Amino acid sequence: MSPRKSTHDKGVKGERVALEHLRLKGYKVVETNFRTRVGEIDIIARDGNVLVFIEVKSATSPRFGDPVGWVTRYKQRRIIRVSQIYIKDTCKDTCPVRFDVIGIDTSGRINHVKDAFRPEGDFFM
User: Fold this and answer.
1) Between 20 and 30 A from 19 (CA), which of 13, 33, 44, 74?
2) Which domain holds residue 70?
3) H/E element holding 52?
4) 53-73, pLDDT tens digit by residue?
5) Which pTM was predicted?
6) Is 15 domain-assigned?
């Protein structure tokens, strides 16, 4: 019997696949696993002049559907809040911002949804 992989191990593997996908698409990865007391963003990258905050979800079973759909409205709000902290602490100039989700299914197929969600109301507080 093989030992069960932890959720963390599965996430790390999915993030490695996503990082390679982004590099092949010409993104410049700025940071991975950016953590604050509010939450975490898996990958922060640049797509040209756009700063992209990326959530990665990977499936180990088809039972729960498309991993992209696992990014709930609650999770989106947390990612947006963490992105505000990142921007406040690290960006000197304003730049376009985008929120992407990368889902990796059980066969390893990548579903990269650009502009998967947007902040409601005023983004900068």
Assistant:
1) 74
2) 29-113
3) strand 50-58
4) 999 998 766 666 666 777 889
5) 0.85
6) no
